[in-house]
Design brief:
Structural class: alpha/beta
Mean pLDDT: 89
Largest sheet: 7 strands, mixed
Number of helices: 6
Order of helices and strands: EEEEHEEEEEEEHHEHEEEHH
Helix content: 10-25%
Strand content: 15-25%
Shape: globular
Low-confidence stretches: none
Length: 336
Amino acid sequence: MFGCAGCGAVLTAAVSKVALPIHLSDTYWETLHPPLLEAGTYAIDPEPYGPPWRLWEEVEAQAAAARGIFAPLSALSDGPPDTVLLAPGDMRGTGLIPERTEGYCMGINGSGGPNLACLGCGLPVGSRIDDCGQWQVVRLLPQAVVRLPGPPERPVMDWADLPADGALWHGLSEYRDIPAGVALAHVVMAAEGGPVKAAPGPVAGLLGRALAALLPSGEGAKRLDLAGPGVGEPAAELLLVPVHPQTAEIWQPRGEAVAVPVEAALWAELAFPPHRTRLPTVGGLPAGVERDDPLPPHPRMPFRPSDDAFRHTLARMPTVQEPWRRAVPADLPATQ
């Protein structure tokens, strides 16, 4: 739990820490987003956030690298690092600051600075963000809040319990292109610009087209496959493995394969595809039986990992500065 540093009032009911959601690496323009975090949970964002902002041209490469940014971005925040993220519905004892309710069209975005104040003492404590094109979240300022004793946090699950626990599914699972873009960046960096052959099935369906568009083809291609709890460890040079949703720990293979981290819910979707009832292909349905489980609709276009998530992740990897990286496109081709 967190309280106001000014008067000690309880500000949030969130008690369980989780890994920073990977979906922060992209959003959907002019679209109303769901809450970024589930009720009762919180995460810490180590990167600076909020105003003032500095254009990339104003920041020296060495200073940017010290902040973990290794490729040009449009702008960098000079706001505080380590803001506390939580679901807006978990806030207690705060109110909006009327003169700081800036937004684009459907909500507020915190662009003018903290817009939430403690009702007990009036201290600005953070920002509520719920405008279109942004994940709904509250960011508490680290210097304005203190940790308070509260109920025990949710126990950390063992790897073996994750697939069967149901904890890997969450409300952002439908936005699979964002964690796919993050995973794609890690695969490209792990392959060091060389050819990669995705294993047939879910792995090829997720990343096969994108890898073919970004990396060269030819002999000596590294095999990309899926590994993790309940799946095993197939023979491959690169293995897509889950990131623990609570601790952000990366599952490690026992062999010499390179572990490529994948957001846990997306990994579970690949490893344990949702069950669908199979309908008869010939002869029709039995008499008196109605079709109540239609086949899923075909997608309107081939799946495409998120460009923005891909670039966001590359910019935060030191290996993006390696000479071979210049031969790899910074964006997915438009026809991919």
